[in-house]
Amino acid sequence: MAIIRLTKEFTFEASHMLEGYDGACSQIHGHSYRLFVTVRGEPNSDPADPKYGMVMDFSVLKRIVNSLVVDWLDHSFILRRTGDNAAFVDMVRERFRRIVETPYQPTCENMLADFAATISAALPDGVSLHSLKLHETATSFAEWYAEDNR
What we know:
Elements: E1 4-16, E2 29-41, H1 58-73, E3 76-80, H2 86-95, E4 99-102, H3 108-122, E5 127-135, E6 141-145
Parallel strand pairs: 1-3, 3-4
Antiparallel strand pairs: 1-2, 2-5, 5-6
Helix pairs in contact: 1-3
């Protein structure tokens, strides 16, 4: 049977800052993120199965990505906690609930690597993560491909 790729698009709103960065992104700012998740696999070949002909149900992919990425980051402030900003993070956390601290600088590139590991581990047997594309703006995005990361 043929290998087929499925792609689903997700969106979330979030703000972030790049601690210690030497440009404008060191300031708190927001993005309307667009995440494209592409998985690959063989369609189900059992004619008696209600999922016959599917690589995976789009609703399953939606549930996985929403629970692991979108619900976690939507309308949050994402930042890396460092010794230099610990007091600031604590102060912000006193006022706002949706603070996401990452062990990495929250760039598109680092976020994609994190998403790839998390999503890959949650996919059903026989389905693998093929690629991710994360838009920070309408014209700026980063991509992750499984074949580049083997």
